Amino acid sequence: MSRDIGAYFRFTPVEAYLYLGLGVWAVWAARRRTRTSVLALACVGLISFAWALSPWMGLPALVVRAMGPQQPLDLLIRELVAIWGIGTAVKAVVDWRQSHRSTIS
User: Fold this and answer.
1) d(C-alpha 99, C-alpha 51), whole Å
2) For 18-32, what is each residue's pLDDT tens digit?
3) Looking at residue 69, what is its pLDDT?
4) How far is Cα 65 from Cα 55, in angstroms, rounded to an integer?
5) What are the DSSP calls for the chain, one per residue?
6) How many CB atoms are located within 10 Å of the residue 62 CB?
7) In the predicted model, is pLDDT for residue 93 greater than 80?
8) pTM for this model (two decimals)
9) 15, 20, 27, 61: which one has the fewest Cβ atoms less than 10 Å from its Cβ?
10) Closest Cα to residue 54, out of 37, 29, 71, 36?
11) What is the C-alpha R_g of the chain?
12) Is 32 within 8 Å of 47 (Cβ atoms)?
């Protein structure tokens, strides 16, 4: 049973390229200014959240077939990525505001 991990993670080529693109974009943005990295984190979070909700959003059949079947573990991972991305972006903005206030005061 433990050797069947591949049964839980079956990515279609479209999913693989989307994950690769989001990952490369996030790494690129992390090496830029804080504003760019926060924007990238928020976008990755929102994209992951929308992707996790895609089975219930009524997407066209062509998109659903290209994305492949949605497994519960896939949805959970996308929701966790969404929470992480949006939460980290909000924390970065709050930290920036606190440091900006302490500089002004």
Assistant:
1) 34
2) 888 988 988 898 888
3) 67
4) 11
5) -TT-GGGT----HHHHHHHHHHHHHHHHHHTS-HHHHHHHHHHHHHHHHHHHHGGGTT--HHHHHHH-PPPHHHHHHHHHHHHHHHHHHHHHHHHHHHHHHHHH-
6) 8
7) yes
8) 0.71
9) 61
10) 71
11) 17
12) no
Angstrom CA distances, 90 to 16, 61, 68, 98, stand at: 28, 35, 32, 12
**Nearest CA to 56 among 66, 42, 70?**
70
In a 13 Å sphere around the CA of 8, the CA atoms on its Cβ side amount to: 11
Report residue 26: phi and psi, to 5°: -65, -40
Rounded CA-CA distance 83/48 in Å is 9
Task: Collect all residues with Cβ–Cβ distance below 8 Å to 85 and sequence separation of at least 6.
Answer: 41, 42, 43, 44, 45, 46, 48
